[in-house]
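Allow me, if you will, to draw on your knowledge of protein folds for a short while. I am sending you one protein, given as its amino acid sequence and as whole-number tokens for its backbone shapes. Kindly check, if you would, that the fold set down in the tokens agrees with what the sequence suggests. The record follows directly beneath this note:
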Amino acid sequence: MPDNRVPDSQFLILTAEQQRWATYAPRMEALMQANLTPAGAASWLADWSELSKEIAQVGAVLSLRADLNTADFEAQRALSAFQEELGPPLGRAEQALRQKLLALEGYQPAPDFALTYRRMRDESAFYREANLELSVVHAAQMQRHAEITGGQTVEFGDSELTVPEAESLLGSADRLRREQVWQAMARSRAEMKPALDGLLLELLTTRRQLALNADLKRPDGLDDYRAYRWQELDRVDYTPQDCLDFHAAILSEVVPLSAAIMDSKREQLGLESLRPWDYSRRTALDAQGRPPLTPFKSAAELEGIAERVFDALDPALGAQFGQMRGELLDLASRPNKMSHAYCSSLQASGVPFVVMNVVGTANDLKVLLHEMGHAFHFFASARAQPLIWNRWSPLEFIEVPSMAMEFLALGELQAAYLPADLERVRREQLESSILFLPWAAQMDAFQHWLYSETGPQVSIAELDAKWLELDRAFHPWLDWSDLNEAERASGWQYYHIFRAPFYYLEYAMCSLGALGIWRASQHDRAAALQRYKEALSLGNTVSVPELYKAAGLEFRFDRAYLAEMMDFVQKQ
């Protein structure tokens, strides 16, 4: 049985004092009482930023510990206690500090702080006292998703598999084995469904109230949580209608192309139709019936491969990955570990921390490249931007570094694969860049419907019916005849729906940016990589369109640009 314990890391160690508001309150009060002048504003902001980094890192570590072992009651309790104790007073203190800065006469923000200053003004106007306590409730509800799903297992034959282990078997060349695994996973998901149904309804109630407290209502008088998230995420460069237009463009430009790719595979494999077990977003089905590629056997071996890849791509990036080995990576899959992959940031230390659940698949290597793109982004922005608010980037750009790294590293994968397999890996990467877009549009379309067209009485049956309608439109190549479509209808029970609402279409936007970087790299690899790194270092100091421009791109996701990029991928 795999070890359930969270690996030792000095970065995950906290003292009791670090988890208490009393530790930080005097410094917050000192900032509030300081005699703030335009000349002294930069120093005052630096002090505020350093304090914020300390608090943010404690929250990140507690969240990591809770996700790394969802069965650890003490880790779950510590995270909840921290959120409950610090959330409301911290929110009030930050609002007071924002207002103090905004009221400072004669202050002109430095160019690299102007955007953050504007955001602080918007955040101050968006602030509602009633949402402080409610945000604590919301955070606790979202964390329950990890508690529910972290212990999920799949009984297959005589084995009890983690979800990532089971998913890896969906690439088997043996179709009967794929079907058996899929059926086992469906049974496991059915067991989870009642708890997740109930959790989503709780989240909907909380999210509606957040919007109502912020005075955001639709013309029919109901809450407008979509408008709430638009403000919360500072989406000023595009509208909800732009997103709906993007969904329609993907339906017309990408779904037929995706269906043609899958139909070609069906023909080559001699199948009458493609069943759900013949298609997995994480494990590509080989059209020639070859078994899935398995480039490594252990997390340690994967780390070694990745370091060689990054060293070959760019020695500076290789050095950063080497810095993470040992204490800033938790890659192996094990029971009770939250099954999603992500990159967290330890703000006070200025380093990223990557969590995954690897089981030996080619997709695991791809996901590590992706998450390391995030890690490189944080390294670059943290080193260039001392203020916490200027780190990372808006969501509309934050997936460009990660998705572009999947492509930029393609030319260095000889560290993982035999020469005969490299063309297969390249083709699967390109196919996935097409096949992913309908899924991203479906995820976003579901949320637009959920938060702008339904009310407090919406039922799980209605959610299931809407997802089924969307899945038939965006994934028409799948044959579900003679199957219980309850499994298909519950496909909305996905991580982002619970823990990152309205954060998904950004992946589709950024995938076009990633393809643009890769296209440029084919003409001048060194220049494209340099622009990539420079854009990362800008962090949050410039707008989304300016970040894209720095990377040599346009911030576009209209139908014409989508068609252009799909044509490029097909030619490749």
Q: What stands out?
A: Strands lie at 153-156, 159-162, 329-332, 342-346, 351-358.
